[in-house]
Amino acid sequence: MNDLLIAGGIGIAFGWALECAGLGDPPKLAGQFYLRDFTVLKVMLSAMLTAMLGVFWGGRLGMLDPGALYVPETYLLPQLVGGLVFGLGFVLSGLCPGTSCVALASGRVEGAATMLGLFAGVLLVGLAFPRIEPFYRSTPHGPLTLQRLTGLPYGVVVALVTVVAVSTLAWIAKREAAQ
Amino acid sequence: MRLVRGLGIGALALGLVAPFVGSPSRTQQRGLDLDSIARAIDEGSDHVSARQLAEWIRDRRPGLRIIDVRSPDEFHDDAIPTAENLPIDQLVRSRFAPDQTIVLYSQEGAHAGQAWVMLRSLGVTQAVFVPGGLADWREEVLSPLLPANGPPAERARIVELSHYFGGSPRIGGEQEGEVAGAAQTGQRSRRRGC
Fold first, then answer.
1. Best mutation site among B1, B7, B28 for testing chain A: the one with the most A CBs within 10 Å?
2. Which of A59, A148, A156 sits opposite B24 (nearest CB)?
């Protein structure tokens, strides 16, 4: 029960942060795909950077065990196809699953429509699962991380990702200031 | 804007220092808990039979994760349904969710048993292995020998399970029934290799 309460609290905080960042607005999200609005990239990059540095330094200072964190397994081909379907839905509706909840909570009808499509998709996949299961479990690679993929030490991967993320954020800030 | 710039510089500093402070996992390295390993072996909670595994797969046991520790070539030749290939050298670099039931198997069980000890030393306590490996899977699930004098319900259960995985049970005589009984208690002579 405590876990559910914590999850609920985190979910509400996450939704509030998304709304504050303006990610409940479909044109803003779709703008990322047309390179008109970089809000999505800024939010995602800063969130990943914060989480990565938090896990690394939290582990280094003995506050948490990075080994206890669950890394979902990679199934290359099915996840590639899933990513394409997800991206298509994202650009068509201007919302992803999380932001569609936020949009609905803010009273936007697009949020309700996207969530309806989301649940219909979940239902369809559930019904078709026995047939698509062999494909769903094809090309398994285990829990794939950048560290495992490149063979580089954890700290070096953290440094490289930080440099790429901060450089990209700085470039976006410069671009926005010029406009 | 000044705050954003400060946060960016702070993140950059934390990221660039990261390669020089070592791995965060190193401080969390677990030792080999010999008492718990001995207890698990003694209680038999370290392994699962091929037939029990087949029932778990058929019943879609939540959180079940079957890992084939053999080489990719061997895995592509033949493998237990729903298994993923994770050779031993990759196994130690993998992460496992606490609510998963990890089942390890190899060709005949020895490597899976060694992989089980490795996982225990890494603190993964929810793992078991198939003692006879893929050979047991073939013998107990795909081509099980039906005991001639066994209870009909037990025979039907074995037949149903075997058919579920596309196998075909062998009908044994009284003598073969004894062989099947011996196989179940692990008194076999074919234990060689890994």
1. B28
2. A59
Question: Can you tell me the ipTM of this complex?
Answer: 0.79
Q: Compute chain B's Rg from CA coordinates.
A: 22
Q: Are residues A138 and A59 in the same domain?
A: no
Residues on chain A bordering chain B, Cβ-to-Cβ distance under 8 angstroms = 49-50, 53, 55-60, 62, 65-71, 73, 137, 140, 142-143, 148, 153-156, 158-159, 161-163, 165-166, 169-170, 173
Rounded CA-CA distance A104/A46 in Å is: 25
The Cα–Cα gap between A131 and A76 comes to: 19
Residue A10 Cα, gap to closest chain B Cα (Å): 20
Are both A140 and A151 inside the same structural domain? no
Query: Do residues A129 and A59 lie in contact, with contact meaning Cβ atoms separated by under 8 Å?
Result: no
Tens place of pLDDT per residue across chain A (179 aa): 688 899 999 999 999 988 888 888 888 888 998 999 999 999 999 999 999 999 999 988 888 878 778 888 888 999 999 999 999 999 999 999 989 999 998 899 999 999 999 999 999 999 999 899 889 888 888 778 888 888 888 899 999 999 999 999 999 999 988 87
Co-location of A78 and A64 in the same domain: no
Same domain, A150 and A139: no
User: Hey, of B7, B9, B12, which one would you mutate to test binding to chain A, going by the most A CBs within 10 A of its CB?
Assistant: B12
**Structurally, how many domains does chain A consist of?**
2
How much is the pTM?
Answer: 0.57
Considering only the beta carbons, identify the residue of B15, B25, B123 that sits closest to A59. Answer: B25
Q: Which residue, A114, A119, A99, is CA-closest to A44? A: A99
Question: In this structure, are residues A69 and A55 in contact, taking their beta carbons and an 8 Å threshold?
Answer: yes
| Distance in Å from the first CA to the final CA of chain B | 62
Minimal CA separation from A130 to chain B, in Å: 11
**Span B17-31, pLDDT tens digits:** 998 887 776 444 455
Of B136, B81, B84, B86, nearest in space to B110 by CA: B136
Please give the residue range of the domain that contains residue A175.
38-69+145-179
Domains of chain B, each with CATH number or no CATH: 34-136 (3.40.250.10), 138-184 (no CATH)
